[in-house]
Write a structure and sequence with these properties.
Elements: E1 3-7, H1 12-27, H2 33-44, H3 46-54, E2 59-65, E3 68-76, E4 84-92, H4 101-115, E5 120-126, H5 130-138, E6 142-152, E7 155-165
Parallel strand pairs: 4-5
Antiparallel strand pairs: 1-2, 2-3, 3-4, 5-7, 6-7
Helix pairs in contact: 2-3
Domain N-acetyltransferase: 2-166
Pfam families: Acetyltransf_1 (PF00583)
InterPro entries: Acyl_CoA_acyltransferase, Bact_Acetyltransf, GNAT_dom
């Protein structure tokens, strides 16, 4: 049985360990090794994760089976002051993919969104990550726009923004 629980700052090393495994596989063919390293530091350094949790009010989740971590997610309620839940991160370890864990996390988030009065879930997905894009489409998300987001050091995130009514 899969358990999904709220994570906090004590879980930062676990989130970092999972990201170090997931990101090179998910983005290794999409991003240069330099951009990958830059983004890992920008998003997953201890200071960055603490800021996301403590100052930006991003809520983190861990999915596990027993004591075995399987993946993680982060989200924000009332994104841009609107009744929408923004999924900032949703990553499943490669060895755990295809077992319905991502779908369970999305169900958890949809339930959380409904309980808190959110009308939509939104997220960004890299335009060239077709596996993730197809997964989200199967879960009822639709593309609402293309977005190029400068992230510093001359790099951008070249994404689709997806939305699902809840």
């Amino acid at each position: 049985m899969i358990t999904i629980y709220q994570a906090d700052s004590q879980h930062i090393p676990l989130i970092q360990d999972m990201a170090k495994i997931i990101w090179p596989i998910a983005f290794g063919e999409i991003l240069s090794s330099e951009q990958l390293a830059y983004m890992m530091d920008m998003m997953y350094s201890k200071g960055s994760l603490q800021e996301q949790m403590e100052k930006k009010a991003h809520k983190f989740l861990i999915a596990s089976k027993g004591k075995e971590p399987l993946g993680f997610a982060s989200y924000e309620l009332h994104y841009l002051g609107l009744p929408q839940l923004k999924i900032h991160k949703l990553y499943i370890l490669p060895t755990a993919q295809g077992r319905g864990i991502g779908k369970e996390i999305l169900t958890y988030l949809e339930t959380e969104g409904k309980k808190t009065g959110m009308k939509n879930m939104v997220l960004n997905v890299n335009k060239y990550n077709s596996k993730a894009f197809q997964f989200y489409e199967k879960q009822g998300f639709t593309k609402i726009k293309d977005e190029v987001i400068p992230i510093g050091n001359g790099y951008v995130m070249d994404d689709f923004t997806l939305k699902k009514k809840i």
